[in-house]
Every structure is written in C-alpha cells, then in structure tokens.
Amino acid sequence: MGIDELRRGLDPSEIVEIAPDIASFVPAVALPTAKISVLSLKRTFWEKATLIHVECRRPTEKRSANRLSRHWYDLACLADHKLGHDAVVDRRLLDDVVQLKQAFFYSSYAGYDRCNAGGLQLIPDDDSLGALQSDYAAMRSAGMFYADPPEFGAIIERLRRLESLINQKA
Q1: What number is the average pLDDT over the span 159-163?
Q2: Residue 66 lies in a domain
Q3: Measuring CA to CA, which residue among 55, 164, 50, 87 is closest to residue 118?
C-alpha cells in the first residue's frame, strides 16, 4: 500500500473551527480558536462501525469492555445525524475503510470482508453486552457526558436497527 492509499485513510476530511468549552461561560473573555482538519462524520461513522464489528467478533479470551462502550454510544449518536444517514448509503467509503483496516489492523477474527456483504455485526453476545453495560454505567457515573445520556438499552436497540438497515443495503 503506497502513500496515496494511506492518504485515503484521512478522506473525506474537513476544516472546522474549534473553541475551548469554557468560552461559552465567559463570553467577555476573547479566548483563542483554531482551525483544524478532522475526519468527516461519514468517515468516523464507518470507522466506528467497523471497530465495533471487530470487537463483536473478538475471541472471548481476548475481550475487554474497558472504555469501549463509548464507541457504541458514539455510533448511536452518529446514526441519528443526517451525515450518519448519508454514510449508510456510501458503501464506497465503507470499502475504503475496510481496505485500510485489512492492511493495517488485520486480525484473523476481524471478518472485515463481511462488513459490506450483509454481515456487519454491531451487537455482541450477551456476556459482552453485560460487560459493555457495566462500562457504560461507569462512564456515566464518572461524568463523561455533558448532558444526560440515553440508557444503555436504548443505544443497543438503536444499533440493532442500524445493523439491520446496513446489512439489508449490502
């Protein structure tokens, strides 16, 4: 894989302006902003979906839910965004993400070939679900969210519907 293929791992991207979170609390103070290049939400959507797919397929002895439930939360949020809806139909972008992950994050159990063939998996087995639910509860109690996040069950139900939709469109 050459440099052009590596650069594809950064596309699509966009330039956004960011500001410190505290800026809204002290509007009288002129805090600096920065313009940075970020992955597009569509790319992030497929990066998260394929990461979750691999985690769902990870062998039992290699599993750890520690700090992973945030990816399920993130994908559920992205799925409800207009760009998430756009991502679902952008199968070429999914192919790009899969190709890059096969080259750089290969594992025998990943099953990347199933991602765009009707076999994307977003819901793990019951044991892993329980571990993810505990991880999510720990995130909530640690104050990892600005607003009141959805219940874990609602996230899983949203991703069940998303998994079905993605796999039907394959």
Answers
A1: 98
A2: yes
A3: 164
> Is residue 1 over pLDDT 70?
no
pLDDT band at 77 (very low <50, low <70, confident <90, very high): very high
Q: How far apart are CA 42 and CA 57, in angstroms?
A: 23
| Nearest residue to 84 via CA among 34, 115, 41 | 41
Q: Which of the two residues, 11 and 111, has the higher pLDDT score? A: 111
Is the pLDDT reported for residue 5 higher than 60? Answer: no
Helix (H) or strand (E) holding 39: strand 34-39
Residue 145 lies in a domain: yes
Euclidean distance between CA atoms 166 and 161, whole angstroms = 9
In a domain, residue 59? The reply is yes
Range of the domain at 75: 41-168
